[in-house]
Design brief:
This protein has about 130 residues and is α+β, with helices and mostly antiparallel strands. It has 4 helices and 7 strands, in the order ββαββαβββαα. The chain has a single domain, classed as Beta Polymerase, domain 2 (2-Layer Sandwich). The longest helix has 14 residues.
């Protein structure tokens, strides 16, 4: 898989530092936490999936909340692709090496990504 160089927007200035996929996943998880997303999980899929290196999975309280979280993530780092924003029950943000899934609780339970990837190692991150 071709790796891409990522930068984190640190301020309105053009200052940016390169981020590894792991650090990007952690920063995106923190941003979700800042917007009061919950049940945030980071799965390390390196060596397990040809699609991406990390999944970040989180819940929002409602479709409006999931959209707000997705908007906030796009301000931290612009995804190359987004799916599900209109419906809001499952929003996918694709950052190539990191894919973020923001669900409503019912949709997350229905699709059960943790059942599919539950054997993958989880990455901890400091949060409130």
């Amino acid at each position: 898989m071709k790796k891409s160089s990522r930068t984190l927007k640190t301020s309105s200035k053009k200052t940016a530092a390169p981020l590894s996929a792991r650090n990007l996943a952690i920063e995106l998880a923190r941003a979700i936490d800042d917007k009061k997303g919950y049940q945030i999980t980071i799965f390390d899929l390196r060596g397990l999936s040809p699609i991406t290196d990390y999944f970040v999975i989180a819940n929002g309280l409602s479709e409006i909340h999931t959209r707000t979280i997705a908007q906030s993530l796009a301000e931290v780092e612009k995804p190359i692709h987004t799916e599900g924003y209109e419906a809001g029950s499952w929003i996918l943000l694709d950052y190539v090496d990191v894919i973020v899934h923001v669900f409503t609780e019912e949709t997350r339970q229905f699709y059960g990504l943790e059942r599919l990837w539950g054997d993958a190692p989880q990455v901890g991150f400091p949060h409130d």
